[in-house]
Amino acid sequence: MSRQIEGVKGMRDLLPGEIELWQHVEGLARELFGRFGYGEVRTPMAEDTGLFVRSVGEETDIVGKEMYTFDDKGGRSLSLRPEGTAPAARAYIEHAINNKEPITRWFYMGPMFRYERMKTGRYRQFYQIGAEAYGSKEAAQDAEMMDMVVQFLGALELKDVTLNLNSLGDEACRPAYHAKLVEYLQAHREELCEDCKRRMETNPLRVLDCKNPTCQAVAAAGPNVLEFLCEPCRAHFDDLQRKLTVLGIKYVVNPRMVRGLDYYTRTVFEFIASHPALGTASTVGGGGRYDKMMKGLGGPDVPAVGFAMGLDRLVLLLKESGRTFTSPPDLFVAVADEGSQDAALALASRLRREGLRVDFDTRGGSLKSQMKRADKSGARFTLVLGEAERTSGQAKLKPMAGGDAIPVALDDVAKTLRAARLATAQAGPT
Ligand code: AMP
């Protein structure tokens, strides 16, 4: 017997039954982000490896350990995108968008790839919905973006998600903080894990991200980045907090939050859910300002702010809420006799053209087995089509939830089912 080939570890199949949850989340995002003026951008799945090295940073876990990097047949080093901000920035620069408009708002959704240790809420192919706003350095832009996330989570009816906020300063004030942090970490060198001993030299901020409890304890007692902010960065951070208050958005300031990427300046934020279903994967989304990244990538000097939400985690939370998003068929067409098979196929086709969801067993078979299928399909009504119905042009709609059958002319099936749909919608959820 030949070996069964299985899917790649950490990369999941999303099947009907679950996919409706995904579509619900994606649909809400499209609609809501559109209201905020964000247009969708789709970038390729793979990019020049250098893009991520130069933006996300060589010393980050993402680039250092987790990228799917390979040489193509022409010898170019490509990487499957581990995140969406750098590809969007690359596209923004390549298409010289800054010459076309002063402010640009983009959103994206799609798969990202990181070779991570698998656990609940953490996969190797996972999905993000993200947004980027280019061209404004103002705190109002940060606040608008957080408002969009808050409204999005509200539309998803997800509660108990806390907004964590911090500022990492800029090139004027961060060096002093860096120096202090390195000095502090040097003094605690022996308590740090091997990775952090290295990070301390190459990128000390990364130590604050380390999952190791001892490193976390060291980091917690270290210097506070907010005490090092220069006047403009302090004013920006104060302004942001004031604006969030104006918008009625609750937040907590968390000076230890640095996020795992190198490109952030000033504002960083994370949305953290408290639901136990997520375990340690409780961050549903995060982002920040990256005013220097465009220039660093050889592009124009354009400030930007962005965020990304983990779709897998949002879906996990929605699943926990027990809500369902599947739409059962309006009708199941069953065939009473062999000779009515074609007429049933044609009836199903016509009703679908008229906008109805219709199920139909193409295998035919006994009426009993078809009725079993009708039950399983969750269809609201079943119509049995046989010679009698064909000759008279009259049939019956049998409500699958019980109750009296409704006599109907075959020409009026769509009209009657639509009226039934409307009546249910008006009656509200059952
Ligand atoms: P990041 O780009 O690391 O800030 O990630 C943004 C969001 O994407 C996180 O808050 C998570 O919700 C989600 N995410 C990141 N990595 C993974 C992963 N390996 N599996 C599932 N979701 C992830």
UniProtKB/TrEMBL annotation:
One of its GO terms (molecular function) is histidine-tRNA ligase activity. CDD domains: HisRS-like_core, HisRS_anticodon. This is Histidine--tRNA ligase. Its EC number is 6.1.1.21. Keywords: Aminoacyl-tRNA synthetase, ATP-binding, Cytoplasm, Ligase, Nucleotide-binding, Protein biosynthesis. One of its GO terms (cellular component) is cytoplasm. It holds the Pfam family HGTP_anticodon. It is found in: Cytoplasm. L-histidine binds at E83, G84, T85, R114, Q128, E132, R259, Y263, Y264. It catalyses: tRNA(His) + L-histidine + ATP = L-histidyl-tRNA(His) + AMP + diphosphate + H(+). Belongs to the class-II aminoacyl-tRNA synthetase family. InterPro entries: aa-tRNA-synth_II, aa-tRNA-synth_II/BPL/LPL, Anticodon-bd, Anticodon-bd_dom_sf, His-tRNA-ligase, HisRS-like_core, HisRS/HisZ, HisRS_anticodon. Gene3D superfamilies: Anticodon-binding domain (3.40.50.800), Bira Bifunctional Protein, Domain 2 (3.30.930.10). One of its GO terms (biological process) is histidyl-tRNA aminoacylation. Residues 1-328 form the Aminoacyl-transfer RNA synthetases class-II family profile domain. Homodimer. PROSITE patterns: AA_TRNA_LIGASE_II.
